[in-house]
Amino acid sequence: MPDFIMPDKPPINPHLAIAAGVIAVSFSSLFVRLSSAPPLITASYRLLFTFLLVAPYTLIKHRKELAALKPRETGLAALSGVFLALHFATWFTSLSYTSIASSVVIVTIQPVFVVIGSWLFFRERISRISAIGGLLALCGSFIIGAGDFRLGREAFYGDLLALLAAVFVAGYMIVGRKLRAKVALSAYTFVVYGSSALTLVIISSCYSLPFAPYPPTDWQLFLALALVCTVGGHTIFNWVIRYVPASTVAVCILGESLGAIIWGAIFLKEYPGWRQIIGGGVIFAGLYLFTRGSIHPRGRDAG
């Protein structure tokens, strides 16, 4: 019997929500590239603005849920926020050293770490068809990135940062998956985004990076990263992991790499080659198999 029983009936199809979230987060790399601010500053303002967007609503409408948090739950949510901060810090910086395609492809290796972590901490099994689909999607990601990897010390450094970003986002999703089984989304995101913003501000301050002045375009990009990519992307994922395993969400996010490459081609003239086209088809074939294998008639539990 599956060890994951859906806690309640979701108001909308979780897989449709994941698709919307993937589209939203696919703009992240484009917005970061367009910003003239240092990557750590861009990441700091992304989470700071996100926190400022969700804080009033949470404090006004969901004070009871926030007050109901136990110390251990608050600590774990804060830890999840630290993982998210480290993910953005390493990933945004990687975009300064390697291409969008290379960076997002490496970051999408995260399902490997999520599956390993879910097995280690939750003994969560994965079906054979889901495993095949996940491997297929990863193969598609490698096909996309294979033609864009660049040789040299800078590219290697950027690739390494992207790999670390994949590890950190896996930690963020694994911790979040456990908490979202019993913690309200509003309370969870309040603590996560607050902790993440504080962590990034501290890191940026340690590097003595200026928080101002920046041109109006940069401030618009900071807000877009917060509103579109975080609220419209990560918040959706935080909601979804109440109903589906973190490994399902992680593999579906592989679609972000295809979206990022498309936006890079349109706005930055980084046109995809035949590897990107073929790889994109392989990714979606893998995502189809993975999500199909992860659906169980009786649902699954996050705890």
Labels describing this entry:
14 helices; mainly alpha; disordered N terminus; single chain; 303 residues; globular
What would you say this structure looks like, in words?
The structure is a single chain. The chain is globular, with a radius of gyration of 18 Å. The protein has one domain (17-294). The chain starts with 13 loop residues before the first helix and ends in a 9-residue tail after the last helix. Residues 1-6 and 296-303 have low confidence and may be disordered. Helix 5 (71-94) packs across helix 10 (185-206) and helix 7 packs antiparallel against helix 12 (246-252). With 303 residues, it is an all-alpha fold. It has helices spanning 14-25, 28-34, 39-61, 63-67, 71-94, 100-107, 110-122, 128-146, 153-179, 185-206, 216-240, 246-252, 255-268, 274-294.
Largest sheet: none
Helix content: over 70%
Task: Enumerate the spans where pLDDT stays under 50 for 5 or more consecutive residues.
Answer: 1-6, 296-303
Distance between the termini: 14 Å
Write down the overall geometry: globular
**What is the chain-wise order of helices and strands?**
HHHHHHHHHHHHHH
Radius of gyration: 18 Å
How does the helix and strand content classify structurally? mainly alpha
Which range does the strand content fall in? Answer: under 5%
Count the DSSP helices: 14
What number of structural domains do the residues give?
Answer: 1
Number of strands: 0
Average pLDDT for all residues: 82
Short description:
With 303 residues, the chain is an all-alpha fold.
Write the layout of secondary structure elements.
Blueprint: H1 14-25, H2 28-34, H3 39-61, H4 63-67, H5 71-94, H6 100-107, H7 110-122, H8 128-146, H9 153-179, H10 185-206, H11 216-240, H12 246-252, H13 255-268, H14 274-294
